[in-house]
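Example: Glucose transporter.
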Amino acid sequence: MTDAAQTLPPATGAGKTVQDYIDELPVWPDGTRLRAAPMTAMQWRIWGLAAAGKFFEGFVVFMTGVALPLIVRQFHIGAAEKGIVSAASLAGILLGAVLLGGLSDYFGRKRMFIAEMIIFCAFLALLLVCNNFLSLAVCLFGLGMALGCDYPTAHMIISESIPSLARGRLVLGAFAFQAVGALAGTGVGCLVLVLVPDLSAWRWMFATAIIPALLVTIGRFFITESPNWLAARGHHDRAEAAVTRLLVRTPQYPTSISLMRRAADATQTKPSFWSLFDRRNRRATLFASVPWFIQDLGTYGIGIFTPTILAAALGGGSDHVRSVSDLISDGILAAKGAALITSLLIVGIAFAVLLADRLGRIRLQIFGFFGCAAGLLLASFSIDFPGATGIALIFAGFMLFNFMTNIGPNAQTYLLAGEVFPTAVRGMGAGFAAAFAKIGAVATAFLFPILLAAIGTRALLYGLVATSILGALVTWLYRIETTGVNLDRIGE
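Written out as structure tokens, the predicted fold is:
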């Protein structure tokens, strides 16, 4: 494009919506139209800082699985306390998503985007000096609160700032960093165990996140507020300024911003939580919440306890631990296996990024749920085959599960929850969906070690197979396809 490039004329003389300007395509002087709107530096900055938040979620939650055996031994905790430690961050995510994430509809996306990272850094620092089980659980809960706020806020600050046709792949591209963080968490955990082979290693694991988290916090001060949110609240002048700052390009287009003036009604300026359950939004609330709840039952249970299951499958486990060195050795072995399995999360999300805007969210979510069921069923067969064959089956089953959950429900439920609600209640809607989903995650994290001992691996995996099939059914019954839909039109 040259300095002589032009933009397409506004659709009406009364101005356009925020998303119309973001989606606007420039044309060459000869009339040739670009196929997609190029991303600006501000749009990429917002995307990168949101992706960093997803990285920290995967990093902290999955590294907890590597650190858990050390924590159990240092604080001499039993099965119930172990479940609380595993579930603490997830319980924080549950409350953070609905309590803090929903505040972005009142105070703005940017303010909560910053606040969540400040909370995260504070509790991360406190975690390093915990000296008992209670303080540890409180700090993990606080970290979860911050990460829970990030669920709706990060999605919205991306999706309300980028072109509609690229929304699926860019939101999921940021979400992919959850898988990158999960892999990094298990990898860093393994490395720290090698470098610091004693019970204090778990503190060093979490310490590695402090400086990166501080840098991300500072970076979030230098982005623009969501112009969609400003316009929905009736702050049209500020929204125009935000769009102008968001769309700085060389050569510049659009050359001027004149937003359509819409009177902000009471539901826009003072959104009610109960509006999520009225006739207008009830279907969206059910569709965003229930499948996400179902997929979290398997994703977090398998993700957190993969090192424990592998340690048992590979001949380790608590029954064979006689010393700290045995514990470290088992931890390193299990972390390596977990890292291999977790790598399939990245492969799965890569396919989701490529396909979400082509095949659509609904197809991928249903396909993914059935694939998860197949992977868990395959893993259950390992119980009947001792030795190398059993190990191969459990690896293959968990790797298939991780691939299918990230190409399907783990990615698509997150994407859809931030798209199916109108702007005025998008924060509360996405936050409620994430919180409802984390009820499943918390229940799984707390009950998984108890059920693993009480009913065994086979029955547990069969139960998760059944829930995965149920997830596909619920998705089909309440489906709302949002691929390529202009966010300004949602809820109309």
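The two ends are 36 Å apart (CA to CA).
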